Amino acid sequence: MRATRGTAKALLTIGGSLALLIGTATGGESLDASSAVVTITSVSGYGGHAFVYAQVRDSSAVYPAPTGGGHQSPVVAEWVPQPIASASCPWVWAVYVFDRVTMAQLNAPPPNAPAPNFGTTTVVCAGPSSTPVDQPPVADAAARLDLDLQVSVVPAVPVAGLPSTVSALLNSALTQDLNLYLSMAIEDWQVMGWTLDFGDGQVATRNGSIGTAISLPHTYVSAGRYDARATAQISGHAQAAVYDRYGTVHLVQRSFSVAVGNHVSTSVRARPTRSYSPPQATVGVIPSIGSAGRGSSGAGFRQIDALRGALTRLDVRLLIVREGLMRIDGVPRGSGQSRLTGWRLDGAGSDAPAGSGTVPGAIQAPAEPMYLQWNAPDRIVGASTQEYVVPVTLYVDTHFPDGHVGSYAIRSSFSVSVNFAAQSG
Question: What DSSP designation does 66 have?
Fold first, then answer.
């Protein structure tokens, strides 16, 4: 995730103008510039946070070197952030100290100073636990704040019209980064509100102390690329350091509020079109004489022989010719699994005695046997026998790989050849 450095932030700035005062002091002590030595010292604050500042020692005294105007110390300093692209120290403060009366720089480097040469011998590595006194927040630190807030969308590639989840998690290491960002020692802080901008024109706001994480469901209506942004509103109390009129450093307590934001880009794909073709199936039967049956099993037959005048039990089977097919965007993506859920005898009734044969038109359970009887042999038509045709409707459920279940009524039939009598003699 990449941070956005251009995000506007609500910042608390402690201190006065950054402009370097150029002029003559109205009071204070004189400075022996010939023996002046510039050093960096610090005042320890809350949680061991160091507020650093420059001071000058000459042959007679030590003077603080405050920044800005309105101070009566005989020396004045300017702190300038400089990037150095080092893993251990990404940027430094270059500190320039001047005699307030002559504006002569007291810590200029020699002409042959090695690189990097920032035009001063006083350089301080910037860090979250050591910040200059009375300096405004460093703009580049916004990137670090952004990275502490992680934003995610699940699934990573949402589907238009289907629910997704946008989440944000504020890392607890934010305390250290706030020190760097606000030039303060953070005493306490909490999230007072969240704003989730889903990037499609929809925005959700949650107020109150609800913790350092938030997760909200969201459905993107249309396919496209969206920028989901989360912003946490943070408030708390902090300790800072300021210069007094002479330039001496004092610790003060302040309340602060800051907005921390980050974002993630997500590509929403169009919801795929799904189609389901029914299975191609036919009926099969397994015959037996009488009502007891034989516990028949197997695939069943499309054509059977039956005894004339005998009540025949027929166990109904589903014979799959080709399973149902699932297509996604027109491309086959898997076959279904079909099972028989019921059947119905169509056409006219058989020659079975009243109350013993299967009545046409009623839907039967899949394991219910069919009982039929034929009292006449096959007819002879044009010197050829003509078998009996029994029409049946099969009720089938097909379970597809994505969980879809299709229910189908499939018309089919089987044929029966009646050539023999049930009794002889």
Answer: -
> Distances in Å between the alpha carbon of 128 and those of 134, 163, 237, 371?
15, 40, 17, 89
User: Where in the sequence of the chain do the CATH 2.60.40.10 domains occur?
Assistant: 137-270
Of the listed ranges 7-16, 124-133, 259-268, the least confidently predicted one is: 7-16
Q: Which of 381, 376, 370 is nearest to 414 (CA)?
A: 370
* Cα angle: 95, vertex 100, 103; to 5 degrees: 75
CA dihedral 14, 16, 22, 23 (to 10 degrees): -120
Q: Looking at domain 137-270, which of 2.60.40.10, 1.10.260.40, 3.30.160.270, 3.40.50.300 is its CATH number?
A: 2.60.40.10
Cα-based angle 337, 343, 348 (whole degrees, multiple of 5): 150
Instruction: Give the pLDDT confidence of 326-383 residue by residue, as tens digits.
Output: 999 999 999 999 999 999 999 988 999 999 999 999 999 999 999 999 999 988 887 7
What is the band of 322 on the pLDDT scale with cuts at 50, 70, 90? very high
Q: Kindly write down the DSSP assignment for every residue of 115-163, as one continuous string.
A: SS--S-SEEEE-BTTEEETT-PPPGGGHHHHHHHEEEEEESSS-BTTSE
DSSP, res 301? B
What pLDDT digit, counting tens, does each position of 63-104 carry? 999 998 889 999 999 999 888 878 888 889 999 999 999 999
